[in-house]
Amino acid sequence: MAEFKVRSEIAGSVWKIEVAVGDEVAEDDPLIVLESMKMEIPLLSPRAGVVREILVGEGDPIGEGDVAVILE
């Protein structure tokens, strides 16, 4: 299966990582919770797959369009 890059839709910081490498996820499962302007915003999986790589850590800054997770 081809890899799929999940990108952040907002700029902010990584508040909490909800998945681990190897986890199976369904469409709309929360992958990461972002914090921006004191609001918590979940980054949801756009499709079902397996988490292959997590490119951010808790507390890291993240920009709009940055790749956060790679699914396969």
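Next protein, fold it too.
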Amino acid sequence: MTTASALPRREIRRTGVHVTTLGFGAAPIAGLYRAVDQTTARATIDAAWGGGIRYFDTAPHYGLGLSEGRLGEALRDRSREEVVVSSKVGRLLVPRTPPLPRDDDLFDVPGDLSRRRDYSRDGVLRSLEATLQRTGLDRIDILYVHDPDEHWREAAEEAVPALVELREAGVLGAIGVGMNESAMLARFIRQTDVDVVMLAGRYTLLEQGAADDLLPTALEQGRSVVAAAVFNSGLLAREEVPDTATYDYELASPDVRARARLLASVCREHGTTRNPEEVHHNLVAHAQQVPDDLWADLEDRGLLRPVG
């Protein structure tokens, strides 16, 4: 793909960190569900860069560090001032004894490491140091607390304050929290000094629960929201929904598959597609003008929540 100029950017809160309107989530290149070879992973990152994407998100969780390593290698020779990289804290990687033949948490990689939850200040610092080592980058621009669902107190009272220290010291450009639960993200916005939250899978064509809590709170408080997992972990990634489609990282139920198929059908009726899975298709979809009557039709059929 011919290198394009960067896509339009949006500023995270008032931090001076500007992310492109379409970002690259680096979990799949680390063997999410099935193994991905190095050549394919690199070509995928290169395609994203060539299409103008300059925001890349990763985490230690993804492929037991493989995602961070592959992303760092691919970006190391790019203009560092042009790219924004985010990663996450909350899971430390430690040796597993005895090792498993395959990771036991979604990724098709060797299970020689395990994840240990740690939202303490020391855990944050150790996690960031390890991320910098794995990526080989000089800094991480945005750092999120990752999946603190059962760890509110530790995340709010220890991890976030540690990130605030790092931000105020100029080590980080912006800080946030990333998870699937929109209500808790709204609570983080109300009660902590995060700049941005990453919401995974709760504001998509399939479901818009975040419109009840997170989005109004973020708007009121002047915080940024990054919408992630917009394919609902695979269910919306194809125009034809197979029986093996996944939702919330598990096999989708027949009812959920039926709703996704109806969504795809309505989108086709209006001359557009839903959510293609390849990078270049995502870039085309991102630039596509969606007709206003599609949104109205989705609302009329009960597939999309009314706005306003």
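About the second fold: The CA atoms of residues 235 and 299 lie 20 Å apart.
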